[in-house]
Write a structure and sequence with these properties.
single chain, Rossmann fold, 2 domains, six-stranded antiparallel β-sheet
Length: 273
């Protein structure tokens, strides 16, 4: 199977994630292999193509999950699709998180907003191999309770990890209260709720650019080194193979050198964050 040529794939299932996001389960060959953190290019002929992070784990054979928020022409067209219909896929592309190299370490996941679609693959991969890692902590923040993705998995994550969640506002986008009784504040407020040292953890971060600035600052204050931090740089990765230059950051390409980078290696990329 060529990674350069789109191939027809059937939608197996569509489910709502939030008021503006859906989860699409797409049929793929059982030989389709990828790493947590990689992405595919999803297209609809006559409409366009978009890079979408893989939300499922490589342990799940025969399908991939793609969390997609409705934000433009391509994603609107995808949202109109139903189970049984077809889309086109090419990939996988990019680098994943190096979990083989960090086995035995304590892991901290920090995610903001829709980026949980990207990091969910890594969370479930680590939890499925929990005996091979140390303590697992998950911090997740969103704008409102209505903007939280994968809420049906929160109970499972709480049982298997130190799972912490927060929202910027307890009111949903329509302004109504929704009975939210957990933390309110930006995601960095969750660090105050951790009662054990984080300085020896490997930090896996994915979110909007402004979140990186404050999360990394907090991690460094807690003694976490640059080499212990992994980030996913979200860019408009149109071709996926380093040819179109849309995702170029200085001399690097997010689609082939990333999207996963070790933070210590981004010092030469002042525009990265």
């Amino acid at each position: 199977m060529s990674i350069y040529e789109p191939w027809r794939a059937q939608i197996l299932k569509v489910s709502d994630l939030t008021y503006d996001a859906k989860l699409f389960r797409i049929k793929v060959p059982r030989s389709f292999d990828y790493e947590p953190g990689q992405f595919v290019e999803l297209s609809i002929p006559g409409i366009g193509e978009a890079p979408i992070s893989i939300s499922s784990t490589p342990l799940e054979k025969g399908y991939i999950d793609l969390g997609i928020r409705r934000v433009g022409a391509v994603t609107n067209a995808i949202h109109a699709k139903k189970a049984g219909e077809a889309v086109y896929i090419r990939g996988p592309y990019g680098t994943g998180y190096p979990f083989e190299a960090i086995k035995g370490k304590d892991i901290l996941f920090v995610s903001g907003g829709t980026s949980l679609a990207t990091i969910r693959s890594s969370i479930n991969y680590v939890l499925a191999h929990k005996k091979e890692f140390g303590k697992v902590t998950i911090m997740y923040g969103a704008r409102t309770p209505a903007d939280l993705w994968f809420r049906e998995e929160f109970d499972s994550w709480k049982k298997q990890s130190n799972f912490l969640v927060t929202v910027d506002s307890p009111r949903n986008p329509d302004g109504n209260e929704c009975g939210w009784n957990e933390c309110v504040g930006v995601v960095t407020t969750l660090f105050d709720k951790v009662d054990f040292p984080l300085k020896d953890h490997i930090a896996v971060i994915c979110g909007p650019p402004i979140m990186y600035t404050f999360v990394i600052k907090k991690l460094k204050e807690l003694g976490v080194s640059d080499r212990q931090i992994y980030i996913s740089l979200e860019r408009l990765m149109k071709c996926g193979v380093g040819k179109c230059q849309h995702c170029q950051v200085n001399h690097k390409y997010a689609c082939i050198d990333g999207p996963v980078f070790n933070y210590a290696d981004t010092g030469e990329l002042p525009e990265a964050i």
